[in-house]
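Board work, copied verbatim: DUF3987 domain-containing protein
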Amino acid sequence: MDDGKRLETPSSAAGANPVSPSGARQEGDKRPLQEPRKWDATRDLPPRTVAEGSAEWDVRFDKAGLAAARAAEAAACAGGASHDITGDSTASNEETDVCGNPERSALYVVGTEQAREQLASLGLHVVVAPPDGHSEADPFTGYSGRSAVVLLEPADDRGFTDLAIERLLRCEPRLSVRVVEVRGILGAESLADWVDGFGDAAEPEQIGRNLAEQIAQLPEQRRSRQPTLREQFRPFPSELLPYPLDDFVQAHAKVMGCDASYVAVPLVTAVGAVIGNTARLRVRSNWKVPPILWAAVIGESGTQKSPAMRVVRSALDELEAQEQLRTAPAWEDYNRLLAFYEKDRRKWDKAASDGVAPPEPPTKPDERRIVVADTTIEALAVLLQENPKGLLMVQDELGAWLNSFEKYSKGSQMPQYLSFYSAERLVVDRKTGVPPTITVWAPSVSIIGGIQPGMFRRLIGQDAEDSGLLARFLLTAPPRLPKVWRDEEVDASVDWRVQQVLDGLWDIDLESDCLGRPHPREVALGEDAAQRYKQWYDRHNASGSAFVGSRAAAWAKLEEIPLRLALVLHCVKVAVGDVSEDGSEDDFVSDGTLETAIELTEWFKAETMRVYSMLSQTLADRQSEDLVGWILEQGGSVTASDVVRGRLAKRKGSAIRSANEAEMALNNLRKEGLGAWFTTTPGPGGGRPKTYFQLFDADLE
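↓ predict structure ↓
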């Protein structure tokens, strides 16, 4: 300790064993400890320095014990014999220890005393794994071999394997550990059954060699952990998008240093909005799918979600700029006629002559729009009447729009917005204004917006889930990527080619029926495409039969996404002439286009379920997830002090402010099976052992 005092280990201390040459402490020895580092048995914390006089701590690490163990090991190496757990220094050439000397065999770890006796009778080195992390007698102390085998029988508690491996690696981090299921390798229900199969005539030593030979043929087993939600993210497959959308997405994502979904999702949604009411995909006579998409880009501040949306928004602004240029002369005429009308109207009001009709106001020019922001249902209905082809609602901060459901008429907007998703008729009754009733026969409203995870979690309440509002959104929440300076710029031709596609779709005239209602051109699935969708439809719904609540609602809405995406992709291909030269196939979606749409939908399915898991995480889950992500950024291993000094501990509201809190957080990861504690061995020059936490590799298969 800093004041030079030594800590006497009280005889009443739990598990206090005086030091022996193997590193354990003999009963009754009260020699002073050189390194007062203890394992907190009450809270299951790793070694840490404690105050002098503490009697409730279980001794796990002390400098005197380690020094004695290393001295014994060095002496064994110098004498040409190995120091193994059995104390048998007989040399063979099956294994070598850390000193390079032959060792008689690997160490076998079992879960019951009966299994230990069975293997010991075969001449194998075998121990029973401790039932918990705080047993007084550690069976692995002093083991210096290179390999160990944990044998798992059907009746064993599978949790004992993690504990056994952790304790083994704590003794020797370089150890190769295999986990072997007895039923899988031996074809028997238990070790006893397998041994009995040899009969009484078999030599025990031969049976032991047979078992060792079978296990030795197995590859080394590495401990793995369930991947975090961050690691489950799959990059957006931008290569599936048709030309030139793929080039646009890849180029801008590379320059901005973000995942391609930040650009692709707004772009595909915008293309669907520009198509609007000009096209429908006919599945059946009563099932006609619009190109309407709703999408939310979720990300922390500084993750490039807003710049990515602005790139797409700039292409739409170009459409509206061209429209304003086209209608500028008409607006000059309108303003001139409006001045005459207002003058005539004042004269008419003063005259108040009976029987004389008032002057007619001039007609406003027909100027199309595509982008709208936060607005009320009544104002949106007026805009839809003026733009029957459809609109795209762009919300840089989607939270304001979601919050409006509570602020405007106590949430009465929500049912009307839900009808927009399928372009169902909208009727708005007004107390003032002419006409008193606004009817929009096919309101095509696509939505794209960005939002931070915390705000999204707060605003998407039970009402939004129960109503199905959240289920209609395609979601993407890619992990934050490190920001680095990039000198590259997007070639102007990349933007120009996408602008040409949008211009072509924008110029398609909207057809109407005899009653003035929009009459979209119908596109059908080709024969092969129709068959492929039926197969996917059945498989998709079968795989989601176990979902309930919000996940079930989202899964149900996703069944139509391949059709909506297929219509968007098909219209893009028609615009660039990538369907047929003579236009004979322009009215049929090919099986290739549908297959691409299905692959994109599978990405959205996985991402949607991942985001739903993020939304359902508790605060503790989110903190663990953040901690794992930070440890991965550090290379996969950290000390408690690293965590305290790191970025996470400096965040506002962080639960980690001290070494003790860092140790508790890391130990929670250990309990979840995400990693383990290890202690480094001092080098030839001496020094203190270093205790660190190591994440296991994620099982991403």
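The first strand starts at residue 37 and ends at 40.
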